[in-house]
Amino acid sequence: MDIRSRSDSEREAKVRESVAALEGVCARRRLDCEWELRHQAPAVLADEGVTQALMAAVAASAGLTDAILAEGLAPNTPANADGEGADEEPSHGSPPAAHAPADGGGAAFAAAVAGPLVSGAGHDAAEMARLTRMGMLFVRCRAGVSHSPLEYVAPDDVAAATAALHAYLAGEEAA
């Protein structure tokens, strides 16, 4: 079981709750059970300045993202090399930047819908936070499936993320 949280105390409480529930099920079924804590890492929060700069970069990149999508360079569905499928509706749940309302502005609309997210990351981001300011730019996956062979990121979402990352790095370079 992998339990993550932005707070060590919340994570530890959830572990205790989960172990108690498991032990309760085993007791009711007259089963023996045992568990072993294999890894525990402290929670690491993203740097607030990096988070704000990434959110600003998403909003600032809306025009570039919309221009890329308008050119048809990033169809919003898996397309064959000849572009078949580019006019189909996306199969992921939330409205992609390419289909945002005109007054919302593509990538800016998508950022407003998603807002800041908490990762609970136990990977490179946690290690990087020891060395420097850390933040993460999340890219929407179809049906929210991530870290799985079923994961799929639509080309329009790749375009939006690339434009946002470009805007963020340009802002960092200027700072």
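(the above was protein one; protein two follows)
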Amino acid sequence: MYRKWEDIDVGSVEKFQGQEKPVIIISTVRSLMRGLGFLSNPKRLNVALTRAQTLLIVVGNVNTLQIDPLWRKFIDFCDENGLIRHIGEDKKEFSKKKDVHLKNVSKNAPDVTTNDSDPMKLSPRRMVLDPLPMHYPSYIIKELLSPSRKNFKSFNLTQKAKDLQMLISYFLDNGVNQKIYVKFWETLIQMEDCAVSEQFSQIDMGHNKQILYLLKVPNLSEHSSTILDKMQNVEISPSHCPSKRMYAYIQQIRNSDILLEMKNSDVLDKDISYNVHFLPNRKAIRWEMQALSYVKKYDLSQFFFPTPVSKHSIDYTGFEWINENVKSNPEQQSAIIHIVGKASFPAPYILFGPPGTGKTTTIVEAICQILKRNQNTKILVSTSSNNACNVIAHQLLQYLPEKSIYRIFAVSKEADLDSIDFRLKEISNLKFGSHYYPHLDELAGYNVVLTTFAIAGIFAQANINCTHFSYVFLDESTNGTEPSTLVPIAGVISSRYKIHGQIILVGDPKQLGPIVFSDKAKRHLSVSLLERLIDTGIYTRDRQSRKYNPRFITKLLYNFRSHEKILEFSNHQFYNNELVG
């Protein structure tokens, strides 16, 4: 569920990951003594702690919250600092202490002026895309994962189904390795595909007469916002004739209402009842399967289990820092130098740290330093969310000319044309007033291309030259599944046995990971590529010094955003007291 009133956002914790707020209020009043439910995930508390800039308010019953060890620590911390306030008479368990006033330390960026004038209508040259297979889950896996079949029971299974059942059990018990890499992720993606379809089936409606242009769906707002975001099309058939199928686009979802636009100019009879079947947008899954097909075709699995490589010399000289904050931050400087020099190549470089430590600033500075050294370099920036992509684009516009930056939006953003910032619209594939994917010849004129993980699949679909992008920055990579982070890599900067560009994984493994609906696949699909790699092989701390090797990984330590009191608990509980406020 997610609502917005002017400057107030209301929604689940996932909706606010990736964007800071001056004030965050967490309501825990629906938690029960027998179980905290979603609050039991420690990363949810950490998201709130690291995204609140000036004030964090937790509303709830301290006695209920104390059943969880982490919340008990947090409550003790708040009590020691006089941060607990009671409503009513039950104040005996906690001492009365003076109010603690937090200084407003937020640094608001200046507003960007918008222009609502209509852009010139032109007919741009469009990208030529190969057909993208549907990659539907097999009948066997759908039958095996049917809600009516509990705990993988083997009764009435064919031999093929039994073999698949054994394979899935092996994957879930042992996890991924280089030998089974492609088959492992293909199987888990199909499991997730089935789980999403099952979620949609719970919203399906039969014998509905109130369907013309506005479809009323009881209790629609109770479904996960992530599921609602996946809604794209509706299949409609008369109740008396299920074989006659019509389709509609979903234009808008509001409370319990869905606004529909019929395809093919179909007309519905308001006196007839219809069956309604909601269809998820499977484009992201199809691009993930496409990426895995390239991993298999080019034999790339080895690159996602990095081993030490021969060291080449790094030029540490000639860096004149553009951003003032970077001038005094040794961790950012080290990360930028090693990223620019491709120190970890062909292994991914990892840049991680909690919110407010300057990951985005480091990305932007690194891009500027790369282009200072070679103005012909091509860079792909891909993120798990549109918001993160837009933030990086805005910051790049402060230092680079507009003609060097290109933002690629999904076709769904055409419906939000009026809400997109004018400066971003002017450097994007929406600049002519309608959506299009630009021809590769047009993209060749830009130094930096920005898009989300899923949409990056168009580059492989268009058969882009594997040496076009020299660097691929994957921001918020801990928010995406491992297969989703393969989309901007496999088939984009790869050929047989080779990766041609420096990959930079950016994120914070202590924040919430990807949202997964398959209970069986969640254990592995909810672990991002960055999180899987960070404690293995070349990315681990040195046993004696307890430091990371800066050729492969950098942890940012200086927090520029949060008040030190808000940061204190999170620093101790999640970040080994290494953060500096």
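Reviewer note on protein two: The chain has three domains: 13-81, 202-280, 283-575.
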